[in-house]
User: Fold these one by one.
Assistant:
Number 1:
Amino acid sequence: MATVQKFLFDTSFDEPDSEPARKTGPVPVPEGGLDDEGDMPRVDDDEQPYAGLDRRRRSADAPLPEPPPNLYTAAQVDAAREEGYLKGHTVALEEAGASTARLTAAALKDIVAAFDRMDAEQRAFNAEVEKSATRLALTIARHLLPAAAEAGAVPEIERLVAATLPDVLDQPRLVIRVHGSLAEAIRQAVRPIQDDHGFEGRLTVRPDNDLPVGDCRLEWGDGGVERDTVRLWAEIEAVVARYLDEIVPPPSPPRPDATGAPEADRTATPGEGEAQADQDSAPEQGEHHG
């Protein structure tokens, strides 16, 4: 009787712990013999219903392998977990601190830049306010001081004469030139000044309508002194122009009703008006001529 040899692979694919593979050998031919084509006769599925699951059944019924022993104890695992948490928390805090520092530095930089801009703007504003105040003060002075100078012309001239007499006591003659509207008042005012300082020369008051009201000129043999408000205003405007760094516009012309007192056209005689004075005067109000 012929035998059939089952084909087997050289490599076994069975589970390592499964029971050893059955030894195979020649498959006996059933009593009925082979079929017409020389193959094994077909076995009814009812006779061997689980023939195909035999190997699976054997693998499932085999005992499971024991798990490998734990490499770390529970305490070690907990300690490692705690250490990891602490490290992560520390790193997070460091990153948060670095981020906060960067944000703080950026905010401070913006604040400093904003303060610099505000300081520059405030300085420019303050400078403009100061210039505006200076322009306003000059405008007010131009409107008020001429009238004030005319109103206080006599006392100012008295102080100038009183300050000059001690330096000209050896002069034989002193001429005081003022606007005609002030001539008589100055004659009356300088008499006590002459007596008080002991001036023995001739003191003459002469009207000069070419002088502005409030100005005066004192003349003696080799010199003189004057009170010149026009020149004083020019100096003031020059100082203001340098401060403002701009050209100061000229004053507006006075209104017809803002003129001073009526001009007098009276001429004094050579011997008239000898007077003496008794009041002080500021030296800066005059200029000596030699």
Number 2:
Amino acid sequence: MLNKEKLVGVGLITLLHLCFFSVCVAGQNQPCRPSSCGDMLNISDPFRLKGDPSGCGDSRYELACENNRTILNLYRGKYYVEEINYQNYSIRVVDPGLKKGNCLSTPLYHLTPENFSYDHPYAWPYDWGFRTTVLMSCSRPISDDKFIPITSCNSTNGTTSSSSQPYHYALSGDGESLQVGDLPGSCTIGKSIFSKLGAASEPGNRSMSSLQDQLLLGIELSFLQIQCIRECRVKGQSCYMDYTVNSVKCDDPNSCKDLSDDCYKPIWLKGLIIILQIIFASIYTPIIAAGILGRALLGVVLSYGIYKLRQRHISKHDTTKEIP
């Protein structure tokens, strides 16, 4: 009877250990759940929120949650995250200084495509395009529809304008439509604001309100770099990023990098060609050297012969002069 009780006790203890072990393993293998902050409900790999478990997301793509807003810290600036698109590896952020209102606000930070290096976690691809808005103060009014009259929240508008320059305008366009020659000589250029390339409004319908909507689109950055790291660089391969289709291509440093015929020759044939080149050089190099030496010796002999003939000619001429 006692043995049966012991067996039952041992069995219960073993069962409890197995259950505990199963719960621990399940907890360790449980995938990271998406994080949320305010309106951002699906913050997942490669992104992570500050304070998430260490194994979740990539530390290079850590975001913060402040005052119920998702924040991206970038180049000593804090940007509001408006959208993350995991399909095309893009994240759209807005400068917190930009606001919709009765006056045109300006960014707190100055961010351009040139800020981003090749190996930075984020990129601002030129292939995606961007819109440039130039703010200016002018000494007299401008009637051209391309120039949008604005009311600046900052009276100087980023310029050194004075009371004699009360007219404020904005000129907005992409790289092809915005030209330096479009700026009047009577205007002082202030800040330049870069934003996502959206649909441009017609010249006659441009207003400060539509310009604010354009600027509030923010900028769109790519995080395609994470695919380069995970698919190529972990294998010791270089990576090419194609932002037009949002894909990466790995490049083996030991593979052929051109489309010449040499690229497709088998290794044994390449080795045979190298050996033949060495043999050819060893045979013909002495012959070529001998030919050059022979030509040099022939030149010396000819020069000496000419010299002797001239000496004989001079000797005969002197003898003729001495005969009475």
Number 3:
Amino acid sequence: MSHEDEYLSVEAFIEMQKEETRDIIQALLDDGSDPEALYDIEHHLFAEDFEILEKAAVEAFKLGFEVLEAEETEDEDGHRLFCFDATMQSVLDPQAIDQQVAKLVELAEKFDVIYDGWGTYYEGEDALYPEEDDEDEEQA
């Protein structure tokens, strides 16, 4: 669930994530992100064992998350890790995101993988990337 040398109980970790969720939402809103938009909330999960990560990914899918393809990476010490993102669309509602986090933290604990928080992208009229629908309209 978390790094071995920084182990927290599941409950304490979820509480820490609730604070982090509110900080992320506030930072997005402070930057002018659209409070009414739907956001792709990307939750990050890691494991040293690909087969275990794969089982966690299947379970995340069963919980209603879109599971992105697993990738291989290294931690800061050069150890090989496997990771995937579990995504779900949501407004910037802290309680809704808290529920997503709690489900995935419990999943991480069950499969002994690392839940590494969540992120999303700025949404607004001045966003620096085109929306898929806008690209389709421009090509027509």
